[in-house]
Amino acid sequence: MKIGIVGCAGRMGQMLVREVLKTDGAELAGGTEPEGSPAIGRDLGALVGAEDAGVTVSADPKALFQAADAVIDFTRPEPTMRHAELAAEAGTALIIGTTGLSAEQEAEIGRLGEKTPIVLAPNMSVGVNLLFALTRKVAATLGIDYDIEIVEMHHRHKVDAPSGTALGLGRAAAAGRGVALDEAAVWAREGHTGPRQAGDIGFATLRGGDVVGDHTVVFAADGERVELTHKASDRTVFAKGAVRAALWCDGRAPGKYSMFDVLGLAVD
Ligand SMILES: NC(=O)C1=CN([C@@H]2O[C@H](COP(=O)(O)OP(=O)(O)OC[C@H]3O[C@@H](n4cnc5c(N)ncnc54)[C@H](OP(=O)(O)O)[C@@H]3O)[C@@H](O)[C@H]2O)C=CC1
Ligand SMILES: O=C(O)C1=N[C@H](C(=O)O)C[C@H](O)C1
């Protein structure tokens, strides 16, 4: 399967290039970066410190979507939306790891998914997808007496908050309680906030250093506390999940899919 990487010089882009190069059944179709990037014209293998791959970085996503069977996108919301349009036009599968998408943008991706398979997931690691399922189950089991708080920490370069994964954990907790996240979420606290309201789902965001991605869901009651934690120490876990999703799209019917679909995890 020919796989293209948009944003191939980014932190995740480089991991994805390396992962495609070492995956059986996957071939690198090319990569893109924005116009003016110093990476344009460089061999993709050399870009990531590997042997020459025989394909170069371009600023032409349209050509990449025409050449590839699947494209993986870990960039920013605006280019991701353009890439989703190109995927739908070319009938190329698209794997989206970009976070910080608005509800409207996610809905538009759903519409474009009617034309081609699109996998959209805020976290492609197996461990975090299991954590989504566990969070939903624990929230449903423990009930309203257990206050839910979601804490995440990421590296100093991250531009969106809370992380896409923290939002996903919030949605899972809300689903376990049978409520909508928007009605329960407390995104941050400052000043004289008054006491915590029963049913709130609180978020706390930490940024610093080179932290790859830590997430904890706290269920705090009188007399005890349950904590579910995932810590990513290597971005390879996300790249492996994304390449697995791209291969999973081979021959797949159009649709908007999640990593639960790719991993065969059941939602109950
Ligand atoms: N779903 C998951 O499992 C994970 C998701 N993420 C998400 O992935 C996204 C990227 O993260 P990260 O790799 O750390 O960020 P980086 O900033 O390191 O990488 C983003 C890359 O995209 C490039 N880019 C920007 N605009 C375009 C464009 N129009 N065409 C092509 N390339 C473009 C950037 O180029 P330039 O720098 O020149 O602007 C940069 O190289 C974030 O939203 C992050 O939250 C991250 C890890 C895991
Ligand atoms: O920006 C990152 O680095 C990460 N972003 C994703 C998110 O927002 O949840 C996933 C991972 O935690 C790393």
TrEMBL record:
(S)-2,3,4,5-tetrahydrodipicolinate binds at H155, G164, T165. Signal peptide: none annotated. The active site is at H154, K158. Residues 127-263 form the Dihydrodipicolinate reductase C-terminal domain. GO terms for biological process: diaminopimelate biosynthetic process; lysine biosynthetic process via diaminopimelate. It is found in: Cytoplasm. Its EC number is 1.17.1.8. It holds the Pfam family DapB_N. NAD(+) binds at G7, C8, A9, G10, R11, M12, E51, G97, T98, T99, A121, P122, N123, M124. Coiled coil: none annotated. The keyword Cytoplasm applies. GO terms for cellular component: cytoplasm. It catalyses: (S)-2,3,4,5-tetrahydrodipicolinate + NADP(+) + H2O = (2S,4S)-4-hydroxy-2,3,4,5-tetrahydrodipicolinate + NADPH + H(+); (S)-2,3,4,5-tetrahydrodipicolinate + NAD(+) + H2O = (2S,4S)-4-hydroxy-2,3,4,5-tetrahydrodipicolinate + NADH + H(+). InterPro entries: DapB_C, DapB_N, DapB_N_CS, DHDPR_bac, NAD(P)-bd_dom_sf. Pathway: Amino-acid biosynthesis; L-lysine biosynthesis via DAP pathway; (S)-tetrahydrodipicolinate from L-aspartate: step 4/4. It comes from the Bacteria. Residues 1-124 form the Dihydrodipicolinate reductase N-terminal domain. The keyword Transmembrane helix does not apply. Homotetramer. Belongs to the DapB family. HAMAP family: DapB. NCBIfam families: dapB. Catalyzes the conversion of 4-hydroxy-tetrahydrodipicolinate (HTPA) to tetrahydrodipicolinate. This is 4-hydroxy-tetrahydrodipicolinate reductase. It comes from Caenispirillum salinarum AK4. The lineage of its organism: Bacteria, Pseudomonadati, Pseudomonadota, Alphaproteobacteria, Rhodospirillales.
